Amino acid sequence: MDRALPLPPIPAKRYFTIGEVSELCGVKPYVLRYWEQEFTQLKPMKRRGNRRYYQHHEVLLIRRIRDLLYDQGFTISGARNRLADAGIAARVIDPALLADDEEFDVEADEQMSVALLKKDAPVAVARAMPLSGNDAYAPIREELLSIRSLLSL
């Protein structure tokens, strides 16, 4: 898992095993299990025999953690703090809403996940979410708009 090589593209799948995530992110499986303990944002689903299944947004988060630790030289604590500073909106998004969505759009999910990791996350996520269509997003959109108004005071 050479860090000099570019990471492969993430396939359009809903769930990934720890082995697949290891290959997609360029880190060993034991490192992923350790990061689950250190970064509370990483919570893969566990099924049969405690097998881990990561969702698309978690793969993006792991790549972000890898970038902070390996490329930018952050410590675990520093990376955790950086993600916490950028993660206000990450606690607002309910993964259950995404899991029940029949029209899963990988590109929109990736844009939203990237937006969650940026400093201006509440504003970016509010813009990335559709303004019409699925009413399941209405409460989230309202919450994000109220957060944005509080932050702009």
TrEMBL record:
Q: Which domain of life does this protein belong to?
A: Bacteria
Q: Name one GO molecular function term.
A: DNA binding
Q: Which Pfam families match?
A: MerR_1 (PF13411)
Q: Which UniProt keywords apply?
A: DNA-binding
Limits of the HTH merR-type domain: 15-85
The record's SUPFAM superfamilies line, in alphabetical order, gives: Putative DNA-binding domain
Question: Sorted alphabetically, which InterPro entries does this protein's record hold?
Answer: DNA-bd_dom_put_sf (IPR009061), MerR-type_HTH_dom (IPR000551), MerR_fam (IPR047057)
PANTHER family, per database record: BLL5018 PROTEIN (PTHR30204:SF15), REDOX-CYCLING DRUG-SENSING TRANSCRIPTIONAL ACTIVATOR SOXR (PTHR30204)
UniProt name for this protein = DNA-binding transcriptional MerR regulator
